Amino acid sequence: MKDSRPATFRFKKFEIADTVSAMKIGTDGVILGAWALESYSPERILDVGAGTGLISLMMAQRFPTAQITGIEIDASAASEASHNIGRSPWSDRISIINGDFVDYDIKHFDAIVSNPPFFTSGLQSPALQRADARHEGSLSIDKLLERSADILTDGGRLAIILPYERLDKTIYSAAMRHLDVSRIAELSPVPSAQPIRAMIEFTKGLTDTYDREAITIRTASGAYSRRYADLTSEFYL
Q1: Whole-number Cα distances in Å, 49 to 28, 148, 155, 164, 226
Q2: CA 52, CA 85: separation in Å to the nearest integer?
Q3: pLDDT, tens digit, for every residue of 132-144?
Q4: CA-angle at 169, arms to 164 and 173, nearest 5°
Q5: What structural domains does the chain harbor?
Q6: Do the Cβ atoms of 82 and 68 come closer than 8 Å?
Q7: What is the tens place of the pLDDT at every residue in 205-237?
């Protein structure tokens, strides 16, 4: 059967090919890239599991002075990400590493953003979500938290998206590594559905309170919700 997916996804200020990377363009990456690090001005950002380079490019657009590094374990995906970044306006501020985040010698970032390889699809029904999930491989949530705590500067932030059912356990595991919650967003596909994703932002160091919100991707009529549209307005055509 002929693949009906477009060869290139066009955003307002950049384009992305995702014919090679296993992590295809989807709602998860887009909303995380738009939501992460709000009211923060990072100078060094690390994109873990860079895939096509989507989040790296979104970070470059949102933070004009930041230097961004993407790390991707799959050589073909890393090559595709480098190709996408080379065609962007920010190729001088983004670099892609082909390596394993767990043991690669990198450190001293003041922000880390990751759409980890716990699933490959966007927001879907729970049944399809489970069907599309892929193995975590070397990058489990615990390893992501442990390594992030090691390389983040004091006061640095880690923003991730993950299955909603793993939220509480992830918060507990992060606290053991002195990563405290600063923001949470619960994501539902439509108003009548339970949350199936959670975005969490941690800060390295103690925080007294955190913000929590619920985001519905689409309205009952199928249109994008106001919150989702506002978040992504600088990216979607």
Answers
A1: 13, 13, 22, 19, 29
A2: 9
A3: 334 455 688 999 9
A4: 130
A5: 8-231 (3.40.50.150)
A6: no
A7: 877 788 999 999 999 999 999 999 999 999 998
